[in-house]
Design brief:
By secondary structure, the chain is mainly alpha-helical. The protein is about 65% helix and about 5% strand. It has 24 helices and seven strands. Helix 3 (about 55-70) runs antiparallel to helix 15 (about 325-345).
Length: about 550
Amino acid sequence: MSHDWRLFVPKTVTVLRQGYGLKPFRGDLVAGLTVAIVAMPLAMALAIASGATPERGLISAVVAGFLISFLGGSRFQIGGPTGAFVVVVYGVIARHGYDGLLIATTMAGVILIVAGLLRIGTLIKYIPDPVTTGFTTGIATIILVSQLKDIFGLSIERVPADFIPKLQTLWEARASLSLPTLALTVACFVAIMGLRRLAPKVPGFLVVTVAAAVTVTLPALPVETIGTRFGGVSSTLPPPSLDFWSWTKARDVLPSAFTIALLAGVESLLSAVVADQMTGRRHRSNLELVAQGIANICSAAFGGLPATGAIARTATNIGSGAHSPVAGMLHAAFLLLFMLLLSPLASYVPLAALAAILVVVAINMAELQRFRLLLGTSNGDRAVLLLTFGLTVVVDLTLAIEVGMVLAAFVFMHRMSLLSTVEGGGPRLIDGDRDDFSRADEPAYEPHEGLPHDTAVITFRGPMFFGSTSVLKDALDQVGGRSRRYILRFEEVPLVDPTGAAALSSFLRRAIQDGAEIIVCGARSSVRANLLRTVEAHVLEKVGFVPDFATARAATAVVA
């Protein structure tokens, strides 16, 4: 415990302590520039898809991207706005305004810091795969639908935030289809996918964005651009401020803040795990949450969007030769430079090109292969997957995660209960029941073989917890009080919770009242400790604990 503080030392400090020279800096410089080139059009596209202006995405990538790398627990993490936030951000802006989003982002940052300090980073990995796949694919679906307006060039003044009304509005505007916009979107999408296949090292997003801007500007095609919709992109970084804060609105956006925090925590830690797998390094999960929290608070202070670790950009960073968190910090510095120098040119970028970029992001995010695999698993996992996906798309992401987690917990408890069995052996116990639980290190005999006729052996297998209480009670009720002596085998019981202990205690009291002797054998130390804490002391006083079945047999023989 005395060295726990080291878990919160940023990887930047660790790298500098180990020595940092010119060669690693060159690698970080190239990697930072490469990622910045990829991140610039993506940050603007994600901001527009979220219902914000393009510079909001750039601000988030600059401020949060720098702090996530500087303060984080991963050597290679690249932070910024991601597709996972699009749905939540769009909804918050639509319902509570942009200041409501800044408040929710600030609160999410505080939640992430507290979660990291409480070591919750190690628990996020327990979110079931059907839940994460369901809401990830749901988010990808919503992103794809949200881009239909710009893909087809539809003339719609305001698109609703909710899924069904959005589809209805898009369908009603179908007559305003712009063929030049649709053709440009398709061409950009094909070009991006082609470059990924034929020239993966070429920054396809940037190349296609520039080419599309030239294609639209020179012949003056009737295609909407960033300039025609937003009037351009700001080339300055605003001063930090918390003037947006409102306690009244904070209460309203609290559920969204928890959703943003959960998404930021899950995606950042998944990204860090991917980086570890690619490099053989090891990240500090709780420090990563603290860094994400600080970065989101600062992003909101500068007027930016929520941010988290971005898996694709992190992988690009590693593939480009990054050596340390300096690469991520340089990526943010290059983005700031691009923002200051190139923002006037961003006005010429067609929204159709950014829509094509987001279609690629949605396809990569959807995990369709994983979705299909989970559809072929058990009914329980399939139900969790489809319910989470459906609620994400049609209702609300927060509700989808909550319901998905609850249903997944019930599915897990049901499966665990199926592992719990109670089997008895003995001439006077349960007619027709016989249990062969001889072990490799024990003599090969039936459990009741050689024991007195009034001695029963009961074997418990699996966890004795609240999910298996009905199994325990039914089996123990059958036993009743028909034997003078009971040997209870606990070798295969990994845990006992208070509810399971209560069911066992009820049987023990009945047996003791009938004058029966009880011997518990093979209970591991943790199980025995839980029984001592949860079963009445006057009951356990009359129960004998022995280390194994052989000892219990010997003790029974002596008594007999």
